Amino acid sequence: MKKILITGGAGFIGSHTAVALFESGYLPVIVDNFSNSEATVLKGIQKICDKEFSFYEGDCTDADFLQHVFKSEENIEGVIHFAASKAVGESVEKPLEYYYNNIQSLITLLNVMNDQRCSLLVFSSSCTVYGQPDKLPVTEVTPKKQAESPYGNTKRICEEIIEDTVKSGALLKAINLRYFNPVGAHPSALIGELPLGVPNNLIPFITQTAAGMREKLMVFGDDYSTPDGTAIRDYIHVMDLAEAHVATIAFLEKTAETSYSDVINVGTGHGNSVMEVIQAFEEVSGDKLSYQIGPRRSGDIEMVYANADKSQSVLGWKAKRSLKEALDDAWRWQGTLKSK
Ligand code: UD1
C-alpha cells in the first residue's frame, strides 16, 4: 500500500481524508499536534476502516519531528498538508501566531520533503483567496484579492511559496486545492466536526442550536443583494472533499513533469443562501430552528460559489452528495456528541 502522510490528520477534513485514502487502497500516516482536535478522532477512523495506521503527535514547524516521521515510515509517497490554524477572527487578534504557524510549517515541510526525496504535495487552500469576486462562478483564473484576514493571507502566501519552489526547479509536484465551504460528517457518525467552544461556522452552530446547546442562530445579515437577502456560499460535503484529495494524489502520481504546480477549486458549483441552509436543515431534522436576523458579520462576503469544471476535467472528480445529505450527516454526528 502506498503511504500518504496527512498533516493535521486528526482534524475535520484530515480525518475524513484518511478514511477516503484507506477506501482507495492507500495507507494514511497521520501527524497532528491536537491543537484543534482530539485523540478520539483516531479511534473513529480506525473503527470505520477496521485497519491499523501510524500516528505521530507533533508539530509541523519542528523539522526534527518531521524528519523522524519520514525516517520511521520510509517510502512516504506524498503529503497532504492540512495542519494549520483556521479561525478567521482569531487570526485578526493573533496575526503573528497565524503567520508563524501556517507559513513556517509549510516551509519546514517542503525542506524535509526535499531532503527525503518526497515529491508529491496537496496543499489545503481556500476560496478565501478570491475575496468577493467581480464575476461568479469563480474559476481558477479569477483574480485573487487582498485577503480580509491574516488567515486568508497565509493561504495566499503558502500557495505562492509552493509555486515559487516549483519554479525554482525543485523536484516537487504540487496542487493547491481551494476549498469552498466544507460541511457534513462521515455517514457512520463516527467522525465529524469538533469545534472548540462556540462555533464560528454556520453548520455546527445550526446543529448545536437544534441540539439545545445554543439558544438561537444569529443570521448575519439579510440585506445582501441575493434573492432572499442572506449570503450565499458553496457548501461541499466533507466526504466529497476528502475524495477530491485522493483523486489529486492519483493525478500527481501520473504526472510526468518533475516540477509541477497547479490550483484547483473544490466546490459543488452551486450556491445556497443561509436561509436555504436553514430550510434544508429543518426538513432534515423535522423541527423548526430557532434563529434571528442580525447585522452582517464584519469581513463576510456576499456571495461565492465555484466553477467546478477544472476538478472534473483534470482530476476526473466531481461532488456527488447533496446539501441535505451533508446536513443529515452533520445532524446525526451532533446526536452522537450529545449522547457522549
Ligand atoms: C470562512 C472563511 C473560509 C474558511 C472558513 C472556515 C472567508 C471569506 N471564509 O468561511 O476561508 O475556510 O470560514 O473557518 O473568510 N453565518 C451566520 N451565522 C453564524 C455563522 C455563519 O449567518 O452563526 C453565515 C455567514 O455570514 C456566511 C455563512 O453563514 O454567510 C457561512 O459562514 P461560515 O460557516 O462561517 O463560513 P465562511 O465565512 O463562508
Short description:
With 340 residues, the protein is of the alpha/beta class. The protein is 41% helix and 18% strand.
Account of the protein in words:
Helix 1 (12-23) links the parallel strand 1 and strand 2. 41% of the residues lie in helices and 18% in strands. It has a seven-stranded parallel sheet with strand order 3-2-1-4-5-6-11, sandwiched between helices. Helix 1 (12-23) runs parallel beside helix 2 and helix 1 crosses helix 8 (238-254). It has 340 residues and is α/β, with parallel strands linked by helices. The chain contains eleven helices and 13 strands. Uridine-diphosphate-N-acetylglucosamine is lined by residues 86, 88, 126, 128, 148, 152, 181, 200-202, 205, 217-220, 231, 233, 274, 297, 300-301. Residues 86, 88, 126, 128, 148, 152, 181, 200-202, 205, 217-220, 231, 233, 274, 297, 300-301 line the site of uridine-diphosphate-N-acetylglucosamine.
